Amino acid sequence: MTQTDFSYDPTNIFARILRGEIPNKTVLETAHSLAFHDIRPLAPVHVLVIPKGAYVSLDHFSAEAPAEELVDFHRCVAQVVAMLDLGPGFRAISNTREAGGQEVPHYHLHILGGRHMGRMIQPE
Q: Which of 3, 55, 113, 121 lies in disulfide reach of 86, CB 3.0 to 4.6 Å?
């Protein structure tokens, strides 16, 4: 297994949002997480959930975040799903690194819903 570089860039847009330098449409803020509406929604509901800690990706967050941050993040996701009435179904996506389509180097989970989401990936 190769070692992954988890170097964090504190100038990324989500770090700037967390510092209050860039406004956002907050859905929910907890002790360790922030959920807000995506500025380029891909579905009727498109919310991003980010940890407040400096984590680059899902695997970085999963490997290094303390238990209280992990639990807070996932409970935040559950609260957002309930608040936005996504009970009929939603999709949660975490793009990781360049080949995975990650655009911002701060771990974030996309929650998409409000319509039928279709197949996850079209077969080749």
A: 113
With tokens 């990324």, the residue in question is 12
Active site residues: 108
Distance from C-alpha of 79 to C-alpha of 83, rounded to nearest angstrom: 6
Task: At 48, list the tokens.
Answer: 């991003």
3-state secondary structure 32-73: CEEEEECCCCCCCEEEEEEECCCCCCHHHHHHHCCHHHHHHH
- 60-119 confidence digits (pLDDT tens): 999 999 999 999 999 999 999 999 999 889 999 999 999 999 999 999 999 999 999 988
* Among the listed residues 30, 112, 23, 121, the one whose alpha carbon sits nearest the alpha carbon of residue 70: 30
Q: What is the pTM of this model?
A: 0.93
Q: 59-70: string of b/e by CB count within 10 Å (b at 16+)?
A: ebbeeebeeebe
Cβ neighbours around 71 below 10 Å, total: 12
